[in-house]
Amino acid sequence: SIPYLLAQWDLSSREDILNYTVNLHPHYEYVGEALASFLHEAKEWPELGLIYAHDDSLRKYENLLSKFRGKLIMRKWDAADRTHEDIVKYFMTTHSQNRFVVDIPRSEIEGFLQLISEYNMTSQYYSYIFTDWDTQFIDPKAFSVAKGANFSALSLLPLLDLNNQVAKDDPAQNTASFLNNPDGEYQSSARDSLTYYFLISDTLSLLSTGIARLAARAPIEPPTGMSCKSNTTWNLGPDLMMAIKSVSGDEMRGSTGRVEFAPDGRRKNVNITILEMSESGQ
Predict the structure, then answer these.
(1) 225: left (phi over 0), alpha (psi -120 to 50) or beta
(2) From its phi and psi, is residue 211 left (phi > 0), alpha (psi between -120 and 50) or beta?
(3) Nearest-CA neighbor of 188 among 131, 104, 267, 116?
(4) Type and span of the H or E element at 198
(5) What is the DSSP letter of 75?
(6) Closest alpha carbon to 7 in 21, 27, 29, 25
(7) Residue 202 and residue 145 in contact, taking contact as beta carbons nearer than 8 Å
(8) What span, in angstroms and rounded, lies between the C-alpha atoms of 24 and 259?
(9) What are 224-260's pLDDT values in tens digits?
């Protein structure tokens, strides 16, 4: 069949879809395992407060939740009502945690920073790790609330400047403007993410590499008479998928780093970087 291109969290447990999908987004198990290792080995955190916005996002933290050896408290964040203030107030009044993993949309992070500042939770005793891939594109001034607190962020794009300028003819320009308009209405989704566009760009480069490999072996006959509603398959589809997923080493390197695939068809050896965030930038 024709390869199906994705650039999003893969929360599906179906292994069969890996036979016809290409998803350069790291698998949620890999992210959770990397985060758990970082907290234990690099930070040596004895405690953790996990603040999350969506129930399905907890799948990303299965490894973290099962492997974290210290005290763990979880609270759900909902900026649509006043309960999110209660969450911050709870941690401030109980002094139960001062190290946090914050899994909320990029559009709500600036409000979160203002709130913890109001509750005096930005001193040197506090640490926060934000998991939204686009945290690095937030205006650095938002982190001026820090009074010694450590702010970190996960990133798939460590080589980009904090205030990455998107060219006017770039298809992500509208998204960039939207992300930098905190006064406008905003609903977070994969396609409202700059990281999403870089993942798609790498995916298209990978697709072109696969097509070039396939064309070097034999002429490619384009699929005809096919639709999503038909049972017709493209006989060169499996060969193209094999050509795409057989890349290794430095054969394919994009904005999100080196691209390689594990035997199960998922991307492997993804470079997840921890960025230190401050008013002056990364």
Answers:
(1) left
(2) alpha
(3) 104
(4) helix 194-217
(5) E
(6) 25
(7) no
(8) 8
(9) 777 777 777 788 888 999 999 999 888 999 999 999 9
